[in-house]
């Protein structure tokens, strides 16, 4: 077993537990846990009980990164979040198949005095699809990307629990229905990354335009993004009776990154131009229908790359 400690953020400690960290007893006995500020479980064999024990000893944890944590369930996640919730600032859940197979514990953590609360959360990253060839021990689930998404409700629970100060949100592989569900919780988000959404459409983009009021950096890596969807992001949005926010959620964007939009054309870029008054930096990659006309339509932006 190897445990690495480093201090990238001031005096806080980070303990990284790799896949070989299967013997949990030495981990729980380490004195460093009392001063832990960030915990990354990458392919780790720690289970729910061990995660709860770490959370109790590191009750001031600010960062929890679960990337391919194969044995952590939704129930174990909720238990840990109830302990470290008051201080947690960053939560990353990528490719955790047991959470995705049954996220009912997350769905139950919604209302009343037992509702999950993450009042200090500023950064949330969710990958709905597990990493390739993820193994789900002791189940009959397939060991490929056919495992189910996190339910829309589970995604909403996590976003709503920390929405007051949430300013950085990454959604990878989440269906459009999940994006629409969390749109009401985007009002403070400054940095929004949406990657590998398999079915983003105009309806979804309209919901994002209404919910995301203060976007600074917007990354869209979605194959189904088309002209009508981009136009919805630029639509004027009613904010009060007789009052509208011009340019939708694109009006405040300085940094725009669009990748892999196989249906987006120059017409879509031209439609969005009027809304992009603050744009300073744009990256367009793997959008086969875009031509030099898109570049000419954005005279004030710094074009980083067109492919």
TrEMBL record:
Protein name (Swiss-Prot/TrEMBL): Uncharacterized protein
Q: Name one GO biological process term.
A: SCF-dependent proteasomal ubiquitin-dependent protein catabolic process
Name the GO cellular-component terms: SCF ubiquitin ligase complex
Q: What InterPro entries would the database entry show? A: LRR_dom_sf
């Amino acid at each position: 077993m190897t445990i690495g400690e480093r201090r990238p953020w001031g005096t806080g400690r980070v303990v990284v537990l790799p896949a070989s960290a299967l013997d949990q007893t030495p981990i729980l006995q380490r004195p460093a846990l009392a001063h832990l500020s960030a915990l990354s479980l990458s392919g780790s064999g720690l289970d729910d009980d061990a995660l709860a024990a770490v959370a109790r000893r590191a009750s001031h944890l600010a960062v929890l990164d679960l990337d391919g944590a194969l044995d952590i369930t939704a129930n174990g996640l909720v238990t840990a979040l109830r302990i470290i919730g008051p201080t947690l600032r960053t939560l990353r859940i990528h490719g955790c198949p047991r959470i995705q197979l049954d996220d009912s514990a997350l769905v139950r953590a919604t209302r009343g005095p037992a509702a999950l609360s993450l009042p200090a959360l500023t950064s949330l990253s969710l990958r709905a699809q597990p990493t390739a060839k993820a193994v789900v021990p002791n189940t009959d689930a397939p060991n490929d990307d056919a495992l189910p998404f996190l339910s829309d409700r589970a995604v909403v629970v996590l976003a709503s629990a920390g929405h007051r100060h949430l300013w950085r949100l990454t959604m990878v592989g989440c269906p459009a229905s999940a994006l629409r569900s969390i749109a009401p919780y985007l009002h403070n988000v400054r940095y929004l990354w949406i990657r590998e959404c398999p079915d983003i459409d105009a309806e979804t983009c309209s919901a994002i335009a209404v919910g995301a009021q203060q976007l600074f950096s917007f990354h869209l890596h979605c194959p189904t993004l088309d002209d009508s969807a981009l136009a919805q992001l630029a639509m004027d949005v009613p904010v009060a009776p007789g009052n509208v926010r011009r340019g939708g959620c694109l009006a405040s964007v300085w940094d725009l990154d669009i990748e892999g939009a196989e249906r987006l054309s120059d017409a879509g870029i031209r439609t969005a131009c009027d809304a992009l008054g603050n744009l300073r930096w744009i990256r367009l990659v793997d959008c086969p229908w875009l031509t030099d006309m898109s570049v000419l339509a954005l005279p004030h932006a710094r074009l980083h790359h067109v492919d």
